[in-house]
Amino acid sequence: MLNRSKRIKRIRVGDFKLGNEEKKAINEVLKSGNITEGVKVREFEKLFAEYIGTKYAVAVSSGTSALICGLTALKYCKEFGVNKGTKIITTPLTYIATSNAIVLTGFEPVYVDVDKETFGITPENIETHLEGVDDISEYCLILPVHLLGYPCDMDRINKIARKYGLKTFEDASEAHGTLFNGRKAGSLSLLSAFSFYIAHNIQVGEMGAITTDNLDIIRLIRKIKANGRMCDCSICTRTTTGCPKIKSCKEEDDFDPRFTHEFVGYNFKTMEFQAALGITQLKRAEWITKRRLENVKYLNERLEKFSDLLKLPKFDKNVSYMAYPIVIKNPVKLPRKKLRKELEEYGIETRPVFGCIPTQQPAYEYLEKQYEGKLPIAESIGSNGFYIGCHQYLMQEDLDYIGNVFKELLA
Fold first, then answer.
1. Which of 45-50's residues contact partners 24+ apart within 8 Å by CB, and which partners?
2. DSSP secondary structure string for all residues of 51-79
3. C-alpha 237: how far from its chain's center?
């Protein structure tokens, strides 16, 4: 019998190891004398775009910043018609940042239910909703979230979007490396947002990025993330050497585009430290995905004996798993609160699967009556789902410990 009062393990949802390569990368930034955006950020942007399979990437301060910058850019980029509508179809089951970004940029989130296996909004639910819309001109975007690494069906979602004259914007914050029909999540729509939060697959602490093939969007985002400045080059505010645009402007007039502002924007620039860490992470991205995949497979095998109580994650070799999600099948027999508390007592960190935003998040309680009874799957997962870690730093003994704890609690 395991002794929960003498925990021998602390199994975190996510972890980060600062090894020699990471320390070297940080020291290089310190030695350079420039810690604000510069060469490391530009290098990371280039490498990340290549990794995802898009022409461009722009680094920002967080995944939330990436969403806000992307949505703001679409409002300003009139060729896409996004400024004509205000409603965005999105998921009710995700971290709240997605809905917050929609609201903060002046749009209105419209929620449709999710798939019980992969947690993302489904083409069927999107189509059903749009078929019942009286005025499609009120809508502008579909914003799916690839939750916990599982991809939404972007081929069918894009087809629906084209049918109704809408654009698609992926939130791929938790899906670095996930493949859908041979292409990486984040390359399947007009633009995509990523987060490099410490618990995510590619992790640096706090940083985000937008990926796209559209140069106009990239130019707008470079302005918006720097308080809407007129300059859209990739040179940071402090650095003027080698920037032909600044040199040309100064020669022609007493005018500096870095300090002339075209839009109302934000300060969402990032720093060289995060980008330097991101570069080291990208070098081992395939290893990270492989390790997480192996860990999910092993945990599924160990916990399969409890499948009458627990719905284990669907295994898919194309998924880059952010975590190991579990949904309790019979919450009366096995309350989530009880199981999570007991797991924590044994040192296994847990997190709820976010909650259904319009019906279970206090910040959006003004929508509760509107969505009452309309999002049964999202509500069920929001009430009964949680996740534990499957990250690349777990050792075999950690995985065995998780299996033994579940056996202790459920057998």
1. 45/209, 45/234, 47/279, 47/282, 48/194, 48/209, 48/211, 48/278, 48/282, 49/211
2. HHT-SEEEEES-HHHHHHHHHHHHHH-GG
3. 27
**DSSP letter string, 259-322:** GSBSS---B---BHHHHHHHHHHHHTHHHHHHHHHHHHHHHHHHHGGGTTTEEPPPP-TT---S
Q: What whole-number distance in Å separates Cα of residue 281 and Cα of residue 168?
A: 28
Angle at CA of residue 208, ends 221 and 78, nearest 5°? 25
pLDDT over threshold 80, residue 60: yes
Residue at 158: amino acid letter: N
Distance CA 382, CA 364 (A): 15
Q: Using alpha carbons, select from 288, 263, 284, 209 the residue that is nearest to residue 77.
A: 263
Residue spans of the domains in the chain: they are 20-283, 285-410
Q: How far is CA 290 from CA 118, 284, 350, in A?
A: 19, 10, 22
Kindly give, in sequence order, each residue whose CB lies less than 8 Å from that of residue 45, ignoring residues fewer than 6 positions away.
Answer: 56, 57, 58, 59, 209, 234
Integer distance in angstroms from the first to the last C-alpha of the chain?
12
Chain Cα centroid distance, residue 106: 21
Hey, do 20-283 and 285-410 end up sharing a CATH topology, with the first three levels equal? no
Q: How many CB atoms lie within 10 A of CB 265?
A: 21
Which amino acid appears at position 219 of this protein? R
Options 1.10.10.10, 3.40.50.80, 3.40.50.1820, 3.90.1150.10; CATH for 285-410 is 3.90.1150.10
- Give 135-168 pLDDT, tens digit per residue: 999 999 999 999 999 999 999 999 999 999 999 9
Lowest mean pLDDT among 20-24, 190-194, 239-243: 239-243
H or E element, residue 406: helix 396-410
pTM of the model: 0.94
Range name among 72-86, 237-251, 261-275, 315-329 with the lowest pLDDT average:
237-251
pLDDT digits (tens, 9 = 90+) for 90-141: 999 999 999 999 999 999 999 999 999 999 999 999 999 999 999 999 999 9
- DSSP β-ladder status, 183-184 and 310-311: unpaired
* CATH hierarchy code of domain 20-283: 3.40.640.10
